[in-house]
Structures are given as C-alpha cells and as structure tokens.
Write a structure and sequence with these properties.
The protein is mostly helical. It is built from eight helices and two strands; from the N terminus they run H-H-H-E-E-H-H-H-H-H.
Amino acid sequence: MSLAARSDARLLAMFALLSLIATGCGIAAMVLSGTPQMRWIPNVVAWIVGGGAAFAIARAAPSPRVWIGIALGALALVAATLVGPDQQGVHRWLAAGPLFVNIAALTLPAALVAMARLGAQHRLVPMIATLLAAILALQPDASQAFALALAGFAILVTDKRISALVTALCLFGIAALSLLRADPLQPVAEVEQIIQLAHAS
C-alpha cells in the first residue's frame, strides 16, 4: 500500500470513528429520553450503510461517467421534491410507501463526493452545485442549503479561477435566500433539538 493510500485509509478510519461517536451520542440521548425505537434505529442503519459506501468508494476508482451519473441522479431526486408531497407548503420529501424520505439528507453526501471526485475544474460541478442550492432554497431547507454551501465552497476553492470562487460565494447567497421564507414546521426534538434532548436526559 502506498503512502497516499495509507494516509487516506487513516483519514477514513478517523472519520468513521468520529461519526460513530457522534451517532452513538445522539442515539443514547434518544434512548434515555424514551424516544421510540423507530426514530433511532434508522440512524444505526444509516451509519452502517454510509460506512459501507465510504469503504467501497475509497477502494474503487470508477470512471468520471459514474460520478456524473451519481451527481445528476442526486440532482434529479432533489428536484423531484418540488412536485412531491408537502407539509404546510414545505417540499423536502418523497413518499416511499408510508414513509416520507428527506431526499436531500439522503443524496447530498453522495452528490458532494461525486463532485469532489470529478474536481472543481469539471464544467458540470459548479452547475450541479448551483442547481442543488437553488432547489434547497425553494423547498425551503436552510440547514441543507448551508451545509451544501460549506461543502461546495471547500470543493470549488481548489480551482484557482475567479469564476469558481464566485460560484462558491453564490452558493452562500442562494442559501441565504432560504432564510427569507419562514419555516412553518416545528423543530423535531431528536433532530434540530438533539443537544437540548441530551441535556434534558
């Protein structure tokens, strides 16, 4: 194994450990507060699936077409939320039987990995990032929009061109637009208020 590969493996292992600790703390807070199992079991499943996907990505070297397909697929799914079911006028979900799935939370990590693998210089990366930010602002979903802006900024600033920096800054501007529309939905205790829930436990 090369030095670069060993370094990547250590970084992946460290990230896996930190994410496991964070997930475990959140689950512990939910269990201690009496949150139903169906609220925290998906977190366990998500960590296992995400860990497996991260390991597979780290070991694979697919062609750029695969990364383009992943990024465009994520974009299409997030765009579909605008015509999907809403809650009080907020569009963040697609229906999967009785479940309403927050598609951005599910697909944005894959889209960001795909864009990072393609590289900031690829002509599709700024386009996809900007379209994703615009859709998140329309949903509206301020938390996902700002998360995308931060991650997109980290990807785009690796390109030294002024146009890439402008696009990166535009992501924050678009994310800020999501704050102009009041979110009518109440915060979920085990999501937005997980720290307060842990403190109360």
